[in-house]
Amino acid sequence: MIYSVYVVARDNTRIAIDVYLPVLETTQKVPTVLNMTRYHRSEETQRNQPESSVILAEAQSWNAHGYAVVVVDARGTGASFGTRTAELTRAEIADYGDVLSWIAAQPWSTGRVGAYGVSYGGDTAELLTTLSHPALKAVAPLYSDFDSYDDLLLPGGVLNTWFGETWFGLTNALDEVPGWAEQLSAAAGVSLEQFRATMMPRVNPVDGKDGIALREAAILEHQNNIDSMKLLHKMPFKDDIDGDVTLAVMPYAFAAEIEASNVPMLVLAGWQDAGTTAGTFSRLEGFSNHQEVIIGAWSHGGGFATDPFLEPSANAEYAEQLLWQVAFFDRFVRGFEEPQSGLKTLKYYTNGESKWHQHTPWKPITKLEHFYLQSNQTLTLEPPTQAGTNTYQVNTTIGTGSNSRWNTQSGGGAIIYPSQHELDQHRLCFTSAPLEQNWRVTGFARVQLALSSNTPDGAIYAYLEDVAPDGTVRLITEGQLRLIHRAVQPVPAPTALPRTPRSFARADAQAMNMNETSSVLFDLIPTSVLFKKGHCIRIAFAGHDQDHFQLYAEQQVIKLHHNASNPCYLELPVELT
After folding, report:
1. Cis peptide upstream of residue 498 (ω within 30 degrees of 0)
2. Residue 458 above 90 pLDDT?
């Protein structure tokens, strides 16, 4: 049974929901899973093309396991009323608390609910714990951002213009802000009618004779939604505030409330999914909640396998992921298992090894190994004995292509990088001798540099690569830093754990003293990889990625300075097995 209604929030805003019920006996009550989205709870095509609806198929799978499913249009989106003043506002999260209360009061409900979702929906699930609602028994944040500033929108303080423009354009079109659907259909080379029919159908109205009229009235209210991309350009620093709008809306900012809820979490993440695994480790390190974490070589949403040592393919574990969620909710939502505060397990796949590992407690035991940069562009385990300098004229015409870890965040596509061998001809590279043994690296790699620049602002990018004996170069992970953010500052947990702590605050920004050497320390996005015997490790540096990020300096020249007392190095967390 499927039906759609409005739940009236505490401020009288009408929130559209779909309810999917399994076949029930007359007096049977069932647990519920809740999915809260700003991407349409369902669309018109679901009614006339049900076989093509991913949402319907997912709900039916949950129904088959004995769960009711409730899917919600976020305030100011879909068929819900209201206007969006920002993303993930406290008002929006409070709406979901009102929906929880509505679910608990239904005759078919046991009053026990688990919340889950992918990406934005994963954030809403995690933030729902801040309400400490008695009906909420477990959450599954899937491929979500713990800290969207650090891990997606401005990683290293560098504005991800590609994602911002793409995502905010898509959401404006979904919200039916005038002109956006026309722009996207023209860019796709299809008519507006075809675009609406196949690529971005309209949201479903709620049931009843007034459903369509109510949908149109709700969409009129969406026309006042904030232009988030313009806002993002106005807020380049993490502590910037524009009116009532702040960037501190993500789970990291609500540590006390989330921990106080004691709600257990099942977390799925992908090593190549933007920078989201950095947030996964920050949550593991910083939150006391019961956490069961699985990290695979997966794209955003888990649809594609992304081990760089294997050919890109559909993710064989994708179908299993729902079963993992069902098993988790069976314990805490259908069943009455109590979470164990502080219990944290980590299961992860190692790229290049094609093998899974599991740790309880969660933290792999590692030794920090330093590969030192030498002025002859090699990496060695011994620090330099003589002073030297490497000069790099930043090439502003290179990037990482249109199928990178950043692109998968919009649509969950496969991750396929362009030739790293060719790109490395335009980067400053340092390469080790062939390894004499296998090294499994898991966690945050870091780069420590003594760096000077001829410009007061700019960026530094680092790419960790595996170089095979046949010369094949594979990108393992990457990281970047806007140079004005180089100051290492004490930052409250959990956002800084286990990262290099920096505030990205406006007051802590420091222009480069041109041609004066500065200490620059920054993280690479966490990974797990097996560097095999006979392969070489390479760290490649650039100053721009034209395919994704904002350029902060024209004609930038970067110099790396090496000497015995102040060496530059690559730090790798090597597992001890």
Report:
1. yes
2. yes
Dist. CA 430–CA 541, nearest whole Å: 9
Residues 95 and 58 in one domain: yes
Which residue bears the tokens 């699930």?
125
DSSP-assigned letters across all residues of 160-181 = -HHHHHHHHHHHHHHTT-TTHH
**Prediction pTM value:** 0.96
Q: Do 342 and 425 belong to one domain?
A: no
Angle at 118 between CA 113 and CA 123, to 5 degrees: 70
| N- to C-terminal Cα separation, the chain | 52
Which H or E element spans position 270? strand 265-270
Q: 208 is written with which tokens?
A: 């009843």
| Spatial distance between the Cα atoms of 543 and 458, rounded to a whole number of angstroms | 7
Tell me the C-alpha distance between 182 and 481, whole Å.
36
Distances 192 to 46, 182, 196, 270, 411 between C-alpha atoms, Å: 19, 6, 6, 34, 20
Torsion of CA 273, 277, 278, 284, to 10 degrees: 160
pLDDT at 49 (0 to 100): 75
CA distance 449 to 519: 6
Q: Identify the domain containing residue 48 by its residue range.
A: 2-358
Report residue 43 CA to chain centroid gap.
25
Q: Is 324 exposed, middle or buried (0-12, 13-18, 19+ CB in 10 A)?
A: middle
Host H or E run for residue 573: strand 569-575
Give the pLDDT score at 492: 64
Report the alpha-carbon distance of residue 96 to residue 75 in Å, rounded.
Answer: 10
Same-domain pairing of 315 and 448: no
DSSP E strands in 360-514: the ranges are 366-373, 378-380, 388-393, 428-432, 439-443, 446-453, 459-467, 473-482
Counting the structural domains of the chain, the total is 2
Angle, helices 161-174/180-188, rounded to nearest 10 degrees: 120
Tokens of 110: 């046991």
Q: Which of 100, 23, 99 is nearest to 263 (CA)?
A: 100
Q: Which residues pair with 292 in a beta bridge?
A: 266, 345
Name the average pLDDT for the chain.
94
* Residue 417, domain CATH: 2.60.120.260
Measured distance CA(495)–CA(504) in Å, rounded = 12
DSSP 536: E
Residue 26, pLDDT score: 74
- Least Cα distance to 272 among 403, 87, 164 occurs for 403
Two tokens, residue 60? 């039916």
Which residues does 10 contact at the CB level (< 8 Å), separation at least 6? Answer: 94, 98
Q: How far is CA 54 from CA 43, 154, 248, 471, in A?
A: 11, 31, 32, 42
Structure token digits, residue 279: 């947030």
Confidence tier at 496 by pLDDT (50, 70, 90): low
Neighbours of 347 (CB within 10 A): 16
Q: Residues 273, 389: one domain?
A: no
Q: What is the pLDDT of residues 123-138, one digit of tens each?
A: 999 999 999 999 999 9
Cβ burial of 488 (10 Å; 0-12, 13-18, 19+) is: middle
Pair (446, 520) in one structural domain: yes
CA distance 495 to 238: 12
Q: Both 349 and 415 in a single domain? A: no
